[in-house]
Amino acid sequence: MAVIATLTTGYAASNAATANVSGTSAKIAAAPVNACEKVKTAGWKAWLDKMPGPHMTPTLHVTGQATTPTGGWKLMLNRGATTKNLPPTQYFDFVAFAPTGPAPQVVTTQEVKAEIKRALPKYKEVVILCGKKAIATIPVKIVT
Asked: How far apart are CA 120 and CA 8, in angstroms?
């Protein structure tokens, strides 16, 4: 019964971000939350580089501009699913983490980019997602 009480106390305390174990207090770090909806994006481009040459491989490039309300944000484009359509659509997840400490109080614009080496030979489009919402759909240009 004492074990159940300890586990329940630990569980309730972890929800409050502090656990009291054997009379000591330990901080539990909260997992960062994707705050992509607080970031404005624009200027998205996608191209498939199929330039010939030794050791060259098709590479899909995606770039865009992201404007954050302050400095210190961590921005990423993570490769998502590829549809099975012909030609396929490539999805990317836009992830934005707000600064956890002091940050410059100035609107900041950063370039966000991703690439897929050894890409498929053709894509219809790239879709950028913020959570489950599409924030950009970009036709893919072929560069040869």
From this structure: 51
pLDDT at residue 98, as a whole number: 96
Would you give the DSSP letter of residue 14?
Answer: H
Which residues does 6 contact at the CB level (< 8 Å), separation at least 6? none
Residue 88: CB atoms within 10 Å: 16
**Residue 13 backbone class (left: φ over 0; alpha: ψ -120 to 50; beta: rest):** alpha
Strand 108-117, strand 59-68: pairing:
antiparallel
Residue 10 has pLDDT above 80, yes or no: no
CA dist., res. 58 & res. 93, Å (int): 21
| Contact predicate 128/77, CB 8 Å | yes
- Cα–Cα distance, 51 to 37 (Å, whole number): 36
Q: What is the pLDDT of residues 43-52, one digit of tens each?
A: 999 999 999 8
